Amino acid sequence: MKPTILLFSFFMITFPGFSQEMLRFSIQPEDDCIDMPVSISLDESAFNRNKDSLALYEITSNTEKEIACQVETGYSCKLWFIMDGYSRKNTVREFVLKVKKQDYASLPNSSITLKKQLKDLVVQSGERPVLKYRFKTTYPPEGVDPLYKRSGFIHPLYSPQGEILTRIQPPDHYHHYGIWGPWTLTHIDGREVDFWNLNKGQGTVKFADFLSEVSGKVFSGFKVLQQHIDFGNKGEDQIALNEILDVRVWNLNPKVWVIDYTVSFNTPLKNGIVFDAYRYGGGIGFRATEKWTKENCTVLTSEGKTRTDADGSRARWCIVEGESGANEGRSGILFLSHLSNRAHPEPMRVWPMDANGGRGDLYFEFVPIRYEPWEIKPFRDYTLKYRMIVFDGKMDKQTAELYWNSFAKLPKIKKILELPSIKKIKKK
Fold first, then answer.
1. ∠ CA 177-255-160 to the nearest 5 degrees?
2. Measured between alpha carbons, how far is 169 from 198 in angstroms, rounded to an integer?
3. By three-state DSSP, how is residue 112 classified?
4. Which of 118, 232, 268, 330 is the most exposed place for a label (fewest CB within 10 A)?
5. What is the pTM of this model?
């Protein structure tokens, strides 16, 4: 395939009383895609946030339609927007970026908002909840070993129509926590440490701090620090892994939730840590609602595997869906693995049909260490990227492919002209 082309042409137009045109560019997708989040790099000196703001327009049939855009700053400065709808391979879509005076009080707020409750950070779309991130310690039911306590996980995850899709602390596996990803069989200086099976008393994972929260017209989300704690060190407990979880909810089609789940981690241990090859561990794990059994839920992978043969296979994406109270009678999640992830296409753990005494409860996980160990060296960063498309009804493989293309085959910049500062534009 030819690489995706992002072409930029530069115009400086100054008309009294009108917005100033800064940049024109066109996007040519590498493959068919749908609702693609796109970013372009910006020079932070190119705009003055105190006086002006950026406005983005898509050019169609000689008209300009304003679309939402959002600036993300940090190590680099990016302008994010959604190339919405269906885009066919090699179809050119044109955009223009302008600087214009804005009354910030009149700008629409994002429909995706964040709010803290006593135990959870809640992400919601309007009045509809999307997910909750638990930052306070959750204890197991009375009479159950308190070693099962932990924090730092997503539950509930809701479908767009409000169906709860996750489950925590099921009696068969009290250490299962909605959507989460601890490492299982690891070794530190030759000593086994299990951060997954909490009742072993070898380790745990906990929320440590909020790093950032953002709410905008294109996306909203949060970053948190989570720590893998080793209980077996001589002396005090020690931090074995520092993990940054970055959750981003895109302000897209209201009929689906599009959620990015990115983990970056490193170890402060002088000799590092080894993730042994095992059928569980890391990645992104999902314990499904208790409603789903072998009688009413299904699995389909990018390689055509189903519930009967998906376990241990590799995939770029996996659809899990089952019976629900939604109008369509079903809800589900499309899990996407980024092509930059270790061992991509990633191996999976999918519980067999006879799981849990024959009920066939559903558990799914991308497992980057299923077949090969992973040596985590000290003070080196490692990243795994996933996206969840949460929906009601059914999803077919063609739609799943479009979403994967939108996640993994982002436009690439072929040429970009340096943006002059607004001050320079005004002097012209």
1. 30
2. 12
3. strand
4. 118
5. 0.91
At 368-416, the pLDDT tens digits run: 999 999 999 998 999 999 999 999 999 999 999 999 999 999 776 544 4
Q: Given this model, what pLDDT does residue 103 score?
A: 55
Q: Which residues contact 14 (CB under 8 A, 6 or more apart)?
A: 20, 425, 426, 428
β strands within 106-202, DSSP E: 112-116, 120-125, 128-134, 153-157, 179-180, 186-188, 191-193
pLDDT digits (tens, 9 = 90+) for 286-319: 999 999 999 999 999 999 999 999 999 999 999 9
Distance CA 288, CA 170 (A): 10
Sequence ranges of the chain with CATH classification 2.70.98: 112-408
CB-CB neighbours of 290 under 10 Å:
12
pLDDT above 90 (res 134)? yes
Task: Indicate the DSSP class of residue 138.
Answer: B
What span, in angstroms and rounded, lies between the C-alpha atoms of 308 and 319?
14
| Overall average pLDDT of the 247-260 stretch | 95
Q: Report the alpha-carbon distance of residue 140 to residue 392 in Å, rounded.
A: 31
The number of beta carbons lying within 10 Å of the beta carbon of residue 122 is 14
Give, rounded to a whole angstrom, the gap between the first and last alpha carbons of the chain. Answer: 43
Residue 341 near residue 409, CB atoms below 8 Å: no
Q: What average pLDDT does range 168-195 have in this prediction?
A: 97
E strand segments, 88-170: 93-100, 112-116, 120-125, 128-134, 153-157
Between CA 69 and CA 66 the distance in angstroms is 9
3-state secondary structure of 385: strand
269 pLDDT band, cuts 50/70/90, is: very high
Q: Answer yes or no: are the C-beta atoms of 414 and 4 closer than 8 Å.
A: no
Rama region for 412: left / alpha / beta (φ>0; ψ in -120 to 50; rest): beta
What CATH number has the domain spanning 112-408?
Answer: 2.70.98
Burial 214-250 (b: 16+ CB within 10 A, else e): ebbbbbbbbbbebbbbbbbbeeeebebbbbbbbbbbb
Architecture of domain 5-107+411-427: Sandwich (2.60)
| CA–CA gap between residue 195 and residue 332 (Å, rounded) | 28
